[in-house]
Amino acid sequence: MPSWVSDAWREYSKRFPRNPSIELIELATARRGRNADISRLVESEGDKLLAAIPDHAVAVALDERGEAWSTKTLAEHVRGWMAGGQDVYFMIGGPDGLSSACIRRADKRWSIGPLTLPHPLVRVILVEQLYRALMVVGNHPYHRA
To answer: What are the two backbone dihedrals, phi and then psi, of residue 79, each rounded to the nearest 5 degrees?
Structure first.
């Protein structure tokens, strides 16, 4: 990832309280050559992604066909997950998206908007919005809507 992505992730993640904490698990995407079988690569990436998610965890797929959540809606989800003591894993697919197995495994499908965004930017938006949702839950002035 470009340094600005790592810097942004670090900046927001260090603001998170001890509980709930946030952790980034990066999985390498498969190399895409001229004659690559994209569907096979997406399925292979999906298998690796699913292997990283415990069975008991809540899985949220970032998916363009998912539900659009407002910050308030995200905060309500975060509040519920925290109250239930649930571990939540957010799945960001590779350049060709998430596998059908990842979509089936997802407990929630969240669209962060109708635009096509580069994956590094999605990571930054995700961490900022999770931080913002935590601030809404805690009535912190960071979120001024």
So the answer is: -55, -45
d(CA 11, CA 128): 9
Q: What is the rounded (10 degree) CA torsion for 138, 140, 142, 145?
A: 80
- Whether this prediction's pTM lies above 0.85 is answered by yes
Q: What is the CATH number of the domain that holds 78?
A: 3.40.1280.10
pLDDT digit string (tens) for 1-54?
899 999 999 999 999 988 888 999 999 888 888 888 999 999 999 999 999 999
**Total count of residues recorded for the chain:** 145
- For 65, the domain range is 3-24+40-137
State the total domains in the chain.
1
